[in-house]
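Review box. Two proteins, two foldings.
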Amino acid sequence: MTEVAELSPAQTLVEGLLAGEVAALARALSVLEAGGDDADRLAARLRPHTGKARVVAFTGPPGVGKSSLIGAFIAGMRAQGERVAVLAVDPSSPFTGGALLGDRTRMSAHVSDDGVFIRSIASRGQPGGLSLALPAMLDAVDAAGWPMVILEPVGAGQSETEIAEFADVKVVMAAPGLGDDVQALKAGLLEIADILVVNKSDLPLADRAAQQLKSMLRLRKKECSGVPVISTSVKEETGIDRLDQAIKFCLDRARNEAPEIRVARRLGGLLRRRAEAAFRARLAELPDDALDGLGAEVRTGALSLIEAERRLMELAVG
């Protein structure tokens, strides 16, 4: 009688994930978020099965109502029979390193829906509003067969331009009455937007915020040609259908991109971010006297800032 080879836990996890088992996906995401050799091996096994999911990112300054608008967008997708996964990056606790908000508190109307998968991810202090583990976690959700993945960064404003490396459609949000948030969009997020949204359009000054964004687009015709400005209100349930149509239009354009090109773009972003994180870690490990010594040489004129910068880089990577 032929003996059947027993699958290793890792093989069982991968096979379950590829079969669409939600429990296997959840365990895989935990492994990937923890990082280390196990995460790298798992990511390598999943990578050949990626590149099919369409990724939509909602970003913008804190307070614009990203989670609420995403919840309304998901409701529309589910009404059309679409399955949707959400990867929401939360600020990390300075004490535990974990996410301050959990997936159970996000978009609560969809938590019990089998056609919606929601996972919160701790940012762990990474810049750009994302988590270093997010690209591999995005690949896992992709490999598990979820056709649409929504990314929600922390909400740090113009620093969140890194989502351009991972998203097929970038929805950049503003809201009236939040001080200089529209001004903040000018310096970074405006240039990566496929769709601009003025959320909470039931509030005063919403029309003014929309006009400001349209004026900015006119000043950047070359970079922002064809970018729509859409006013939405989750409270009054307005503008959601138009946003849905705009996202579908952008996704139709993205369908011409081959899966391997999409994977290559994500990998490029992942490698760059990991190298930057490794360099920051090496800088943090340098003794204070090394920095003090370079600073003293700059103060006395023995070194220029450029020379000191070069020396610092050599110390970090040497």
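Next protein.
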Amino acid sequence: MRIIIFGPPGAGKGTLSKSLVKEFNIPQISTGDLLRQSIKVLDEIGKEAKPYMDAGQLVPDHLAIKLLKQRLTDSDTKKGFILDGFPRTQKQADELEHITHIDHVLNLKCSKAVIIGRVKNRRICLNCHAIFHLINMPPKQEGICDQCGGQIIQRDDDNPTTIEKRLGNYKEQTETLISYYNKKGILRDIEAEGNIDGIIKVAISILSK
């Protein structure tokens, strides 16, 4: 089962992906996480991508594609995967067609006001990348991950100025892909402003048909 999850930054793609990983026993692949790891170790891709990520801009297509190709060679992707944050542009979607086929596309729909409210309170574990929310899903111990005991931080790009840029980029480039996958007959919209448990149930129901 090969799945793409679409939605603007802060719509809940990461949280939903982690639940689907447990349900279907396939890995989540976040190009954002792959890029952040490359930047952390400052490898060749990380050095080139860092200025774009720091400015809240999309990284060049060739970098995201290169990282994805590398990840899909891992053995845990043989039964399928969940793509979170890829493709973001038509060029990436076209390239993805040459790499693999996609079975389902879930499109999370969420308003700008809700997104900004979520993002400013979002926190992430540096070690295992578990996601927390200071109001809706806070860690049991402040600053400490419930799952692995790692340090919880606010991502550099989770601030009002950067999120505005990211939303603008999403609307300009990624939303055009909604029509692209809708025409293929594999896209389903999911209202993503409600309770996360309800959103997860809807997604599992769609994917289980």
